[in-house]
Automatic annotation (TrEMBL):
This is Glutathione S-transferase. It comes from Tritonibacter scottomollicae (Epibacterium scottomollicae). Pfam families: GST_C_2, GST_N_3. PANTHER family: GLUTATHIONE S-TRANSFERASE OMEGA (PTHR43968:SF6), PTHR43968. Gene3D superfamilies: 1.20.1050.10, Glutaredoxin. Residues 1-82 form the GST N-terminal domain. Coiled coil: none annotated. InterPro entries: Glutathione-S-Trfase_C_sf (IPR036282), Glutathione_S-Trfase_N (IPR004045), GST_Omega/HSP26 (IPR050983), Thioredoxin-like_sf (IPR036249).
Amino acid sequence: MKLFYSASSPFVRKVVLVLHETGQVEDVELLHVSTSVTGPDAALAASNPLAKIPALTRDGGPTLYDSRVICEFLDDRAGGALYRGGWDMKVLEATADGIMDAGVSMAYEKRLRPADKQWDAWLEGQRKKIIGACAAVEARWMPSLNGPVNIGQLAMAAALAYVDFRHPDAGWRDGHPQLADWLMKFESRPSMKATRPDTA
């Protein structure tokens, strides 16, 4: 199998964290691509009509895309332990993916749009999505972030670490001490160290 890959993408990092945690790293070749909305990679676009990463090519089947689809496929391939929490676990993953969406949207606004055309109110709206999601996790989902590793933990770690990487002044830790403490501890996992954007 081959994974279209960029080390800085939180969605890709979530997939690679799953590979590490399920012992499948050696089963997948990472294909580094540089792609964006304004400059899609041709090989990626040929495999995924949306020209987005991650995308996983496999023998005997169509390319899988969307990180949730790929993660669930890889979890099933490894014996199916990461989604043991059922629908609650999928909602937690979706919440983390929402943080990723907001963070990536902010990064595109800051890095691709000319400075004189950037919309501050829109950036603040995306930041508020991140803060709102963190508040919901702090109030409702902390028990799911403890115990044996699960998809919610991997997704949330990838999401929050991305916010720290691209938007260190977002302020998501303010008022969310349990979540901040959880991430600090979770980042000591070997899989997190191996997939850091500045070292991967």
